[in-house]
Design a protein that fits this description.
Elements (H helix, E strand, L loop, with lengths): L20 H8 L4 E6 L5 H14 L6 E4 L3 H17 L8 E9 L2 E11 L5 E5 L12 E5 L7 H9 L7 E6 L7 H10 L6 E5 L1 H6 L2 H9 L10 H15 L3 H5 L8 E2 L3 H5 L2 E2 L4 E5 L9 H21 L6 E7 L7 E8 L5 E2 L3 E5 L3 H13 L4 E7 L4 H12 L4 E4 L3 H16 L3 E4 L2 H8 L1 E4 L2 E4 L5 E3 L2 E3 L2 H15 L6 E3 L16 H8 L3 E3 L1
Parallel strand pairs: 1-7, 1-8, 2-5, 2-6, 6-7, 10-18, 11-15, 12-16, 14-18, 16-17
Antiparallel strand pairs: 3-4, 4-5, 9-19, 12-13, 13-14, 13-15, 19-20, 21-22, 23-24
Helix pairs in contact: 1-2, 2-3, 11-12, 11-17, 14-16
Amino acid sequence: MNTALAPDILKDLPKDGVLLQYQKNWIADNSDVKIADKSRRVGLTWAESADDALTAASANGDDVFYIGYNQDMTREFIDSCAFWARYYSLAASEVEEFIFKDKTEEGEKDIKAFRIDFASGYKILALSSRPSNLRGKQGIVVIDEAAFHEDLQGLIKAAIALLMWGGKVRIISTHFGVENPFNELIEDVRKGKFPYSIHRITLDDALADGLYKRICLVLQHKKPDIQWSPANEEAWRTKLITSYGDHADEELFCIPSKGSGIYFTGALIESCMEDGIPVFRWRGKDQFDQEPDDVRQTVCQAWLDDNIGPALKALDPALVHYFGEDFARDIDLTVIKPAARLHNLTLRVPFIVELANMPFRQQEQILFYIVDRLPNFRGGALDARGNGQYLAEVAMQRYGKNRIEQIMLTRQFYQDNMPKYKVRFEDKTIILPKDADVLDDHRVVRLEKGVPVISDTRRASGEGGKRHGDAAVAGMLLVYAAENSTSGPIEYETVSIRSTEHRGSDDSGRKDHDRSLNLGKGAY
């Protein structure tokens, strides 16, 4: 979106109304390093040029070094900066063309370069993409269409060096393959390896913020009959997608090519599995939910004391503990996955609990039994979708909102957190039971449109009934709890079960039930 060629089109817009919301969000982000993972032609570079012109013109500003991968885009960027200088009435020189001596292994080469000088004493300078050209410079580095640079990794390394003295780095690009360094950088950031900011702007994101309306405004001087309407926008979108054909996902929707398939390899998961860690599975018999309260409570308590109790007693009381829980009632499994944080920060899962066809009250009974006995319990994250909302809420009420996260599992949550779970396996900082069904749960995580999710069309049958990636989801939530918990050790006394359950008038079995769940006092 280059309106630099038609400045009169925007003259009647207020100064803060020229940019669309996603462009304003980009400019407002003052992170040291920020990345634009974007569709083609949505105007991110144009917005960046506005920010750069204002920065270079400010008395408290900085030099800006723009690096494109070809001369045409470099000239377009400089022209955009000149447009903004005029639009905002900034004191700046005209665009200057000069010959830049580019030092290569073959010797010096004459490269046409461009610059704009501002009265502030700062400048915008367009450089070639050789990393060595950033040596000795200080300011803001803009790497445009990063995926298409020959040595992106070297370029970013050189640019990051400018951060030491207050510089900043802006990396803007569409995708160019799943194995491209640009996509690998984004994956590393999502895994938490780098503290960078990511802005993902698909075609649909841009349209929602008014891109097509702006296109109509800009093109009306050429095509007076062009008018915005919902129908015209949808027709334009369809035509654009059709024109890109098989490349539409990559070019318009931020999905790198060859970017679908298995997210976790079997070898990766198995490398973090350990023999001897139990998986406790319990499927409620048919009509178990129709048994009287006291019968269900007694049966459940016996199962807990016989199976989970000894495993809990074996936990190291000196270690901090967390848990993640994926909820199900009828079709899939509820999976509760606790973990101890070892001294080397590895998360070791001491056991997993899998429940099928289990009534709500007994799921509550089991969860509370476990969490009440986790030494130094610091945080848990629960699936709060649908029926899971009840258990997540009562857990929050029992243990406090500073220790319990109620999670709605959206695509955005998967995109933000499944990579952080995966990096635990890559770094060998998580230990799971060596179990075939737990392994299979991880292998049903797929990359779909660039997001690691568990597809509704992929189910695996395992021990205990239908599975739906439940152990993988519980693991993701476990890691989320461990990495986001802000609570410290506190004195904790359980809440009476009376405060978390709705009861009828029948008092039968109440005393036994309260006695079995009110577990007394402990230091957590």
